[in-house]
Amino acid sequence: MSAPGKRIVALPGLSATEALAEGIAAMARAGDCILLEGPLGAGKTAFARAFLRAAADDPALDVPSPSFTLVQTYETRIGPVFHYDLWRIDGSAALTELDWEDALDAIILVEWADRLGDLRPEDALTIAFRPRHGDAREATLTGWEGRLPPSLSSWPGLSGQPMAAPAATGGPDKPGHDGGADGHGEDADGRDEGDAAA
Which residues are CB-neighbours of 46 under 8 A, at least 6 positions away? Predict the structure, then answer.
């Protein structure tokens, strides 16, 4: 059983990650901050892409990883969404040049949220992704108390049951796993495979 305020959801493959993103997008509103955490290849970019496509109601929306621009802004049916990728920043001070204060009135989606430091909003929803065996992931959601259902297993495409631990040899928990062949869309440095030149 997870701690109070935490929801753990099994993500057996990319479609489950996308289902989670779609569910969160349906609940998001202006002023929300959604913080994505996890190691390289854990599914943060796949979640962000699915969230933005759902928010825009456009399954073909081009969603490049903002790993070099650091932020991309999208006009969506639920309002503006600022998508930050903080992989390359050197501390939270850099966010002052990236419209962070203005973004707080919109919806904020942050990859590599651990780099926010003291700018981390207290009322944010944090989703920590953990690679499991094969294409599987596990997500731990913390925050949005009173907004999230007690169990996410009722959402289409999701299971609320934590997954069994992966085998001790190999697999995504092994250091150096590149995450590129898992269907979650991230390559060895966490960037989307198609965005190397972005």
Answer: 14, 17, 18, 21, 183, 184, 185, 186
> Other CB atoms closer than 10 Å to residue 70's CB: what's the count?
17
- Burial class (CB within 10 angstroms; exposed 0-12, middle 13-18, buried 19+) of 176: exposed
Write the CATH number for 35.
3.40.50.300
Place of tokens 């049951």: 161
pLDDT of residue 114: 87
* 3-state helix/strand/coil string of 92-107: HHHHHHHCHHHHCCCE
**What are 2's strand-pairing partners?**
none
Which structural domain, as residue segments, surrounds residue 111?
6-186
For tokens 């989307």, what's the residue? 192
Residue with tokens 């973004």: 103
Q: Give domain status of residue 198, yes or no.
A: no
Tens-digit pLDDT profile for residues 69-91: 788 889 999 999 999 988 877 76
Per-residue pLDDT tens for 95-142?
777 778 888 889 999 999 888 888 888 899 999 999 998 889 999 999
Which residues neighbour 62 within 8 Å (Cβ) at sequence distance 6 or greater? none
What is the reported pTM? 0.78
